[in-house]
Amino acid sequence: MPEAPSDPDLLRRFLAETEAPCPACGYSLRALATDRCPECSAIIRLAVESPSVRLGAWVLAQVFLAMALGFDTVVLAIVTIAMFIEGPSTPAEWAQALTMFGGFAGLAGASGFMLWRVYRARRGWSRAEDRRRRWWAAGVFVATFIVHAAFGAILTRVL
Ligand SMILES: [Zn+2]
Question: Which of 23, 28, 95, 156: CA 20 to 30 A from 85?
Answer without folding.
Answer: 156
